[in-house]
Structures
1.
Amino acid sequence: MTMHNYAQHSKFADTIRKMQAAETNGSELYFVLIYLAKELGLHDLADAMLKNACEDSLHGGMYGAMLGKGKESEEELWKQAVKLYRVEASAEESLRKMAEEMRAAGEPQLADCVESTIAEENEHARRLKAVFDAHGIAYEKSWHSYKKEYENDRRRNHQRVSCNVGQFPRTRYHNAEKPWNNRRERRSGKTWSKARHTMFFHR
Ligand SMILES: [Fe+2]
Ligand SMILES: [Fe+2]
């Protein structure tokens, strides 16, 4: 039996809520202290607190699940893991940009701190990827989600949603499945306008 959403039918719902807050806040405080201990070179203290912090975080997760956070089915669990993977995998780009802005604004120490997390963020993505591979879980975005994202980007910038194939931003799309390389689809003329050699994204 799953404990997911247990609090809904429990007389101890308030206690569960309090425990969840106490465990997560406690572990958050631990992590702050761990960072400060490391700055002071107190590595043994940091190590001891790290173990406590991880375990308290897990206790918080247990109570969080009882409160109905997250989804209970395996399919949903994989979906959320894939979502997290995408956040981790795309972190480097935004963190570098952030660090650049900070450096340009004359705050190089802050930029260094931000940049120091990049290697680990990439490792988070790699770690998840290895598990997805082992379980045969698809984690790359489909061509259609790239397209949707691209269209939304353009709409946000008040640009035309259609564009020439030659202008298609290769760096973001060259790994995606391209319907114009699929003969059958190309012949059907679904995505390819022969007359203007234009990819047209129908709204
Ligand atoms: Fe705890
Ligand atoms: Fe991360």
2.
Amino acid sequence: MNASHMNQAVFLDRDGVINRIVYHQDLGIIDSPFTPSQFELLPDAVKSIQILNGLGLKTILISNQPGIAKGHFDYNTFLAIEEKMFKSLNQNKAKLDGVYYCFHHPEGRLKKYRKECDCRKPKAGLLIKASKDFNLDLKNSYLIGDGITDIQAGKSAGCITFLLGNHKCDLCRFLNEEKVKPDFVVPNLYQATKIIQKMVGFFTIKRGGKKCRSSSIRPMLQRSKRQ
Ligand SMILES: [Mg+2]
Ligand SMILES: [Zn+2]
């Protein structure tokens, strides 16, 4: 573990990044898992999180979970899903240092969670809260998500952003409309992790006792801008 990265984090979205999104046939929608049995880690989740842990980066889950507000499942079911996630990760020694959720939705059915909050992505509330809790340097932290709102939240917190682009071309039009551009578009969490591994490697090269972030990171960022 490298102590110099202790104030850097990788923020991970949950659904579509570490676990599969689910097609709910009865409702005709693609959404989060609504039951523990629907929760299934993606095949690269464990090894990716292990790499991030090994780099000494704080690995922090940042997730909108409006399913309770919308009446898809109750809080106990949410906890059971979360328990399954931790179990699947822990038994493989993949560690999440923190987990942050927004349970709100502006049109939620449950009054308790129906509100315009500051924590629902695209807002950066959860990232800011985590940065205070862990004393993080957000500008040298990373966010990996599969949705436009993830990228928006990451951008507004000043993080380096990765869009998982299975739907790259569908999303690109909306990204342009929203004028939000991820720093990297990659097919999966593992590919994002490999890039972060390289970038962290660059961070640790020291010239005259100073980290040389700007000179080393720029070429990589530019190379990624070819979408
Ligand atoms: Mg997602
Ligand atoms: Zn919220």
